[in-house]
Every structure is written in C-alpha cells, then in structure tokens.
Amino acid sequence: MTYTSTYPDISIPETLLTPYAMRHAERLSESPALVEGATGRTITYGELFASIKALAGGLVARGCAPGDVIALLAPNIPEYAVALHGAAWAGCTVTTINPTYTDREIHHQLTDSGARLLITVSPLAELAAAGADGTSVESVVTIDPGSGESLADLMGEPLETHVEIPTDSVVCLPYSSGTTGLAKGVMLTHRNLVANHEQVSAILPFEEGEPIISFLPFFHIYGLSVLLNGSLAAGATVITMPRFDLPEFLRLAQEYKVKRALVVPPVVLALAKHPLVDEYNLSNLEQVFSGAAPLGADLAAEAEARLGCEVAQGYGMTELSPVTHVSPLGRARPGTVGLLVSSTEARIVDPETGEDAAADEEGELWIRGPQVMPGYLNNEEATAETIDSEGWLHTGDVATVDPDGYFSIVDRVKELIKYKGFQVAPAELEALLVTHPAVADAAVIGILDEEAGEIPKAFVVLKPGVESTAEEITAHIAGQVAHFKQIREVEFVEEIPKSASGKILRRMLRDKG
Fold first, then answer.
1. What percent of the chain is predicted at pLDDT more than 70?
2. pLDDT tens per residue across span 248-270
3. Where in the chain is the domain with CATH 3.30.300.30?
4. Residue 103: other Cβ atoms inside 10 A
5. How crowded is the C-beta side of 384, counted as CA atoms within 13 Å?
6. CATH fold of 417-512
7. pLDDT one-digit tens code per residue, 154-190
8. How many CB atoms sit inside 10 A of residue 502's CB?
9. Hey, CA dihedral for 54, 134, 122, 44, is it positive or negative?
10. In CATH terms, is domain 14-312 a member of 3.10.580.10?
11. Which residue, 191, 180, 215, 217, is CA-closest to 97?
C-alpha cells in the first residue's frame, strides 16, 4: 500500500537555492535578516545579499568553480549565511562540519569531501588547521579577523549574477551516519532543498518578519534547511544562538515575542520541567515544534499544559532534505509525527518479508519524493542499500499510520543511536574501543535516557589476564570523538553475542540492559 499526502502536489520552482532563499532581499533590504542573539548585532537583507555577492565574486576570482567544495566549520553566527550562500552563489558545494568534532573527525570529512577551502572562526582555527593537515584544503579562512586569512580577505568584486549550474547540482554536503555505519556525505541538490522548502511552507509557513530563534546547529540539516534557509526564504528574521542555553533562549523568546519555537526533545523536557521557565513571559508562544528525535506523548502533554500552547512534532532525516512529515498548526495529534508533506509518498514495509504491512501493523518506513537525496558521496554501495531501484528511500525507522494519515515512529530497524537528535554510529565507537590495549571485543547500543533520548552504552570484553576500568575505557573514547558520541556507560561481559555470520546481536544486548 502506498500512502500519499493529503495536501495538493507542489510545483517546484526551477531555481537554485540562493536565489530562492534571497528572493525577498531587494524588497526587504532594510529589514533584519539575521540577529546575533547575545549582542543584538543585526545584518539586514540588503547587507546580507551584498556580502553574498562579494564573497562569490572573490571565490570566482580565486578560481573556485562548480564542483569545488567549500567546508564550513562554525557555530551559529550571522556570517554563517554569508559563507554558505556566497559559496552557493559561486556555484560551489558546501560541506558543513560539526564544530564540536575532533581533528580526526574533521580530517575524515575534509578528505572524503575533497574540500578546497575551510572557513571557520578564530577560536577554532587551530583545530581546523590540525584537521586540514594532509588534506586537499588550500587555506583555512576565519570569519572573524585572526592571524591568517579572513573572510574579508576573500571578498571581491560583487558577482551580480550567480554562476549558472543545473538545479540537480549538489549544493550542500552534510555528513550523516545514514541508516547504518560511519559518517557519509549526503548529496543534497538545489532542487532537493528548494522542493522541501516548498513542501514544508505549504503546511507551516513562516511569516515575513517573524523572529525565529535558531540554536539548532546550522551544520545539521534541521538547522540549516528549516531554520536558516526556511526563514530567509520567507523574509523572516533569524536570531542566532551558538549553542542552546536555557536562560538565553527564554530571554530571547520573551524579548522578541516569539510565537513559534523549533526545538528538539531535550528542550521540550526543559520547557516542561525547569523552574526557570516560570520567570519568563512566553505568552506569545503558539506552537513548540519538535524534531530530530521521537517526542513522547506524555512529555508533550506536560509541556503543553505548562506553556499553554500546542506542542507538535515532525519527522525527517538528512537524506530527505530533511522533512517528510509535519503536524499542522492546531492539528497536532499526540505521539504522532504528523502528516506527509506535499508530493511525498510513503510505504510501511515488513523488513523481514519486504511486503507491505497491513493498515494497522508496524513496518519500516519508506519514502519517495523530490526531497530524496541522489545518494552518498563516493559510496555507491551505501546508496544502493538505502535507495532502491524504484526510488524508495528505506529510512530504517519502524512506523505505523492511523486512518487519518497521521504517522508514528515506534522503533528503529537501523542500529543508530539518537543522542539529543544527533546520530551516533555504534560501528565507529566499536572500532575505537578495540584499539584500547585491554579490550578484546566490544559492542555499543543505545539505552533510553529521559534527557538525551538515548545514550551510548558499551559492552566490553577484556583480554585474558588484563584489567581495566570503565573510567579508562570512556577516557580512551572521549579524546577521539565529539561530545555527543562519547560512551556514557560501560559494562564488562564475558562475550559479545553474535550470529553465525559474525553480526552483533544488539537486540540481545538491549534486552540485557
């Protein structure tokens, strides 16, 4: 059975991403496009567009051309939009890097993507340089003035007309663990992202001038596509926060009279339970919209009761640009991720038989639509495992659908751990665990945690006659991966349960706890 959206199909504009995102810039030239939350520093739409064109001109003068990759390693600041769209206006591809990554993780992404330039901020310049060592990166450029080349140095004669490239060219290259395995470059085209903006805005449109607090990181597709580009395309105002801080978030929500907050489940938890919330006036809030990880119906109800507004959720993944399901304003249904967005099809398939599940049964969620990525960079095998010959993307999530078309995510086929909305691949941690001199074998699973959703737990087999502690094991991992990937619990076991083919039987470990 194929499920289709209850919304009319969209017509996808034949345009590149930046002209689409900046379509109101001339008319709104004096209006604030981006505000730095901590300082109030503002960039107007006119200033933003001028900077984008100047950066594009500088990149073209430097020899950057379509097919070249520009890496962006920075927290949420207004200039993120300048770097992103300046590169896109020049016809380049942007790979967005998590600023909490270690130099090892940065090096992997730069190497795999073949990035030519790395744009960062001065506090991260040393880390960026270490990660870029031995890669194709020609120069590390800081957005703010530092000891080396700065973004201002990259600016050139404004490129008034963007470089012409096909709309199916890759514009963004975020890295994701996908449905399984290590981080891979997700190729997202101009058409993918423009289509998804049209799909989402048909259900939940941002209003012109609406303040949108953006602490969700721009390197992540939720922050990049929904908050940053979605806001700009609507003529809204993006208020940047470099990281989530509850008092600062509450201050900004009160000061700017925010009516819609786009968050993740741990933030819903804070809004539902933290005593500080009562000290702020959030009466303008009409909806709290949660994504990136499942939100329980009980927690949503508790937050609704406290805030006096609707708490809804949606669904998506990086490979889907990212949104496929949205709960419309005023029509959220507790425990569900909402309805299919326009021009999107879904199937719920029994992962064992490959047959469609009955209407009231669980199965793996498959998606088809214009937001589906063309594939993973340099990885045809992983692409074929994720997108079948008929264009269906196999999400790895187990879902159900009710008679009214509301979908619920109830389990996971894939092995990924979702820590505060971030994907953690067990295979990456297992490969690092076995490099510890005391470890003979290891397996990692996600276990439930009220605040984080899931936390990584390691099961470790020690070598005969060798001793170690949980603290030594976690310290070994901590120095090599970003904070969200770190092992939170360790249990020593006699053996790791495996199938006859050697596959780790994670369900047995989950049953064990």
1. 98
2. 999 999 999 999 999 988 899 89
3. 417-512
4. 16
5. 4
6. GMP Synthetase; Chain A, domain 3 (3.30.300)
7. 999 999 999 999 999 999 999 987 555 668 999 999 9
8. 6
9. positive
10. no
11. 217
